[in-house]
Each structure stands twice: as C-alpha cells, then as structure tokens.
Amino acid sequence: MCVIICIAFFVVAPAGAFTADSLNITVAANGDATASFRFTLDGVIENAIPLSLLQDQLVKGLATSSDPPQVISFDKSEATLLLKNFAVTNDVPTWTEYRTAPMDFKKAQIALENSAVSTVISADFSPKIISVTFPDGYSSQLTGSSVLPSITHTVIDPTKAAASAMNASATGALEINSSPEIVRVYIDGTYAGESPGPFTGIMPGGHEVMLEADGYLTLTKTVMVNASETTTLSEVLDAAATPTRKANAPDAGAVFFAVALAGCGVAARRRK
Fold first, then answer.
1. What CATH code is assigned to 170-236?
2. In the chain, pLDDT over 70 holds for what percent of residues?
C-alpha cells in the first residue's frame, strides 16, 4: 500500500523545482544587453529534465523584442543570453538616453507550466534580485519582483560634452540693442531671427549685419565677433521718409477740376 502511495505521489506531485536566484542585465552602448540568469534546480529535476527544454522555455519567457534572445551559454545553474534591442536609445550632442524594455517573468513560468514537464516541475521564474547596469556604470536594482519595469537613464558622454564645450568656446555671440526694439537681423546675408538676440555660434571675425524693420531705412554694419565673447551692437534706425509733393507742383485733383470747368465754359458759349 505504501509503495502505491509513493508511486502516486511521484506521478501527481512535482518531483523537483526551478527557482530563479538572480538576473543581471548589462546594457551595451548600442542598446543590446547581456543577461546573466542564475537559477537553482532542486530534486531529481536536476538530472531528469533535458536542459534543451529548459533553455527553450527560458528563451521564450525572457524575449523582449521581435528578436528572440540568443543563448551564449547554458548549464544547470546559469544561462547567459544576448538580448537584442533591449533598450531604445536617443542620441543628442552631449548625452544618450536609454529606455529599457519591460520584462514579465511570469511569461517564462507559464510557458514552463504549459510544457510536457509541468507535472514534475514547480517553477518560480521571478528572480530574488534583479539589476540593470548601463554603459556609464549606473545600476538599478529590484528585489522580489515578478516584473522588471521599463527604466529610463541618461548617459552623459564625456567626449561629446568636451567637444561641445570646445565648439562653444571657439565661437562668439551677438546681441542687438536697437530702436525700434524689434528688428529683423541678417548675418552675412542669412536671416538669423529678430532682435535683441543673443545670436550664438558665430565664428570669430568680421561679419556683415543688416537690420530691417517696416517703416525704417535698412541699416548695414560690419561687426567683429570674438571667440567666447558676446559682442553688443546698438543702433538707431532712421524712419523712412514719406512721399511729399513739390512746392510748385499743381495738385492732380485741382488740375482735373480746372479742366472740367473749362469744358463747361466751352459748352456754354456754343449754346449761345
């Protein structure tokens, strides 16, 4: 009787367990990531379950993009995977923003539970410790979570920042003080915006600056701009002259009226 109960126990109850211990994800500069997934196999599962089956379920459960994870190495305690496009990158001149994909460990657990070995395995795919490390060494950690949420992190690129600072120091700026206050500014024939500015990123040297405003005469000046300095240009635009009649010139309306009167006089004499 005891033998029958024991046999029934091994048939019905799981003979071993899969327990996730830790997941360490290292994000590369291009957004790909390497994941080190450590786990423990207890009981007869350690020798009974084919590693290929466990590997397949783990790959399915940890997929975060249309590209399935690539297995780098796999044994009875640790799997190393390449996660393509794990993080979306956004590059700007001085830094890169990384936004990682979320990961639901229940997917791997459900996949294993729906497999052929579900009757002999009890699985817990939620790592006790999760860490995500970015290219600058910053690391975000979670404990006891069944879901890894999306993480956004900004990585400052020292090389880009230094180059940007060097470029900024190699140029100058121009600020316009004018009357009227708002004028259209052209630098070397190219429209740069409206005053007062400042207008930045101007290479050192002489530049032709043209100021325009409706109702005013256009003014053009040659201005010297120095690196790492702001040059101020203060100018008053002359009002455009309004058209005037010459002093002795007859008014067009008066001429027309005189012609009309003359015509009426001629007609009157003919009637007589």
1. 2.60.40.10
2. 72
